[in-house]
């Protein structure tokens, strides 16, 4: 029995296949770039959501305090002009009074100029 003779190949079997290596490298690079772009987009979306939740949606303490003070002033009853008998009452109360007696006449008061700031402007 004789063994078949093998013809010598042009490429040694120990050499790597460059086409396969290039293909795997290109596909790997494309997958890596896609994964990085996806993760970067996910990070930006989460960061925007956190800024919205922690900064934009939160009302500053000074504004909350100012609104509470304004509501207290609007709901308070106070004398506007004691000599003329004019008082400031909450708008809800005034609407109730007018609903009960539509002939109730409100006396318009002259506008009072706003008080100057405590420090005053220096010239």
- Compute the CA-based radius of gyration: 41 Å
| Beta-strand percentage range | 5-15%
Class by alpha and beta content = mainly alpha
Q: Summarize the amount of helix as a percent range.
A: 40-55%
Order of helices and strands: HHEEH
Count of DSSP helices? 3
How far do the termini sit from each other? 122 Å
Overall pLDDT score: 81
The major β-sheet equals: 2 strands, antiparallel
Strand order of the largest sheet: 1-2
Q: What is the approximate shape?
A: rod-shaped
How many E strands? Answer: 2
Poorly predicted regions: none
Describe, in short, the structure shown:
By secondary structure, the chain is mainly α. Helix content is 52%, strand content 6%.
Keywords:
123 residues; mainly alpha; single chain; 6% strand
Layout: helices, strands, pairs:
Blueprint: H1 18-56, H2 61-75, E1 78-81, E2 86-88, H3 91-100
Antiparallel strand pairs: 1-2
Description:
With 123 residues, this protein is mostly helical. The chain has 3 helices and 2 strands. The protein has helices at 18-56, 61-75, 91-100; strands at 78-81, 86-88. Strands 1-2 form a two-stranded antiparallel ribbon. The longest helix has 39 residues, at 18-56. The model has no long low-confidence stretch (mean pLDDT 81).
């Amino acid at each position: 029995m004789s063994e078949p003779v093998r013809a010598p190949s042009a490429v040694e079997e120990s050499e790597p296949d460059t086409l396969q290596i290039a293909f795997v490298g290109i596909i790997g690079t494309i997958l890596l770039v896609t994964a990085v772009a996806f993760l970067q987009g996910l990070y930006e979306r989460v960061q925007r959501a956190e800024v919205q939740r922690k900064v934009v949606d939160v009302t500053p303490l000074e504004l909350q305090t100012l609104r509470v003070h304004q509501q207290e002033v609007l709901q308070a009853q106070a004398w506007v002009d004691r000599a003329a008998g004019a008082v400031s009452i909450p708008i809800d109360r005034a609407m109730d009074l007018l609903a009960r007696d539509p002939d109730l006449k409100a006396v318009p008061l002259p506008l009072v100029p706003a008080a100057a700031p405590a420090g005053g402007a220096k010239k």
